[in-house]
Amino acid sequence: MSRLDPPRINRRSFLSLASLGSFFAALGTAAAGMLRLPNPAVLPGPVRRFKLGSPEQFSPGSETAFAEQNLVLFRDDEGFYAISSTCTHLGCAVSRSKDGFACPCHGSRFDSKGSVIGGPAPRPLPWLEVSRAANGDLVVNADNEVPEGTRYRV
Amino acid sequence: MKDPSRIYRWLLLVASLVTVGYLVGAAVHENYLAQWKTVQREYRNILRQKATDDRGRELLAKFRIEMKQASIPALGTVDRCVTCHNGIDDPRMADVEQPHRTHPGHILDKHPVDRFGCTVCHHGQGAAMTFREAKADDVFWDYPLLPPEMTEATCVTCHDAGKLPPEQIPLLTTGMKLYQEKGCGSCHKLGGRGGALGPALDNEGSKTKHQLIMTNLKPPHTTWDWQLAHFRDPGGVVPDSQMHNPTVTQREALALTVYMLSQWKRDVPESYLAPDKIDQKYHALHPTPLTGEQVYQQYCAACHGNGTYSRWDKKFNRFVPAIRGVSLTSTASREYLQANIEQGRPGTQMPGWGPHAGGLLPEEITAVIEYLRSSAAAVPAMTALTLRGDASNGLPLFLRNCAGCHGMNGRGGVAPEIGNPVFQRAATDEFIIRTIRNGRVATAMPAFQRPEAPTFGDQDIADVLAYLRTLGEQRGQKATAQNVTSPVSSGGRP
Question: Under CATH, domain B391-485 is a member of which superfamily?
Fold first, then answer.
């Protein structure tokens, strides 16, 4: 890089710096664009936002299992909440037991709020985000987890 | 002294600046100016205006500017239409401009986008991110976006059109009715039933623009434009088409077009089928027989008219026989009619209608024979013709009196082919003799033995009959002109 060393002629060194600078700027912009590639705007999987119908269908104190969507919808005095019925161990569908949920595959047991009370499950069953669609139907977004105890008030 | 590397530095500078400029431009275009982002910003403003209650505020708070899609693995579709049509399930959006407006009707109540997507009904390119590409009416996409009024054609993917409320599928209902009224089944098969002159229409709706002749049509070349134009003027769209002009109004042509678009054996999972569709599939395997009159209207009338007169057919270039004419039905036996209906007339435009050809059920053939014979009058018993005919005497009589219409060798001209093997097998001597004697009322066939001025004596008729009976054999040997001038002189049955 001896050409860039002590500035003999200012104009020339400016040209060199400018050309190199813009070269790296171009490289940087291109790299920034490429870094976005592993993070696609949409994923090819099916939609995991489930419309479950109007809130009036579910009486307070009820629980309704949605087998196809793998979740259980509860309604108590404070509001609605949905718990995923996919076992956090290896993804089997858990079923309702006396004291909560039980997984038929490896014997994981959860209480009625989804916390682990036995078996190999590493995490409690996630609580899913409940909201309402524009037409008033309850919507559960199985991609969004909410902290245990969150209720959705209608 | 000039620095020799100077030019390269300029080159690097210019190239890099062009690259940076292009990349920045592309980034702005993709992240800010994209059509769908503009649309979603507009929609957010609408949401903001309408956020007057709790739920409105909740919807506004949850709204993100992002790509949205309904991915339906069971149907093999990924529909991003909802990226721009954000308000389709929001009843508050009924009065805003497209693309934000609520979906019309209550269709989405039973067909949520999350389960059905959009393209299963509307067609078009679901994965597109601009409206032009979603519409996809160029040459690269097989099923472009259907015009709104034709979308009802796709209801039959999962429903039996006969069981849907007619007011919801007005065009389809009219189209179905017209198909039967116009007797399209006379030439076209649908579900294995129908004639053989035109193509079967079972999968007409699955055809792409590349399968239809578009040379005589103006662009855009869509399949529905082709169907519409073809229903108005078949010969103008397909130059060598044998199809009769069905004489329909523009509205009726539209209804028939929708009916054609609905003819598509699409494979959708059982869980998507409405119960009536499953019933329909069952009934297609176990059909209920039609009445004789229905069979006649749907499968015979398009060529034979009402059947009481013989009709000159311009496309076929011949007379179509009067099959309900009193002189035929009074002379022809059930067996004769049955043989002709089941086996058709090979080599002519009359196809066979038996279970393995036109697909009519045996009960329906019996019923249509009864319908044809409903015009029959009682005929007096025929005086038996005991004379023995001579085919060599019959030939000149045939050439002089019959060949003009029935053709040399009886190969047919403007009148039926009496050398036809099915005719030769099915027609009894008595039937032929009666026909020669009395002619056929309301056709070009005269009576050859009118009491006041008989053309033929009994012996002449016997000779002609003997000659006619040689025609079946001649056709078997590919008769030539020589055969006519030196006919088989033996044979000849009484």
Answer: Cytochrome c-like domain (1.10.760.10)
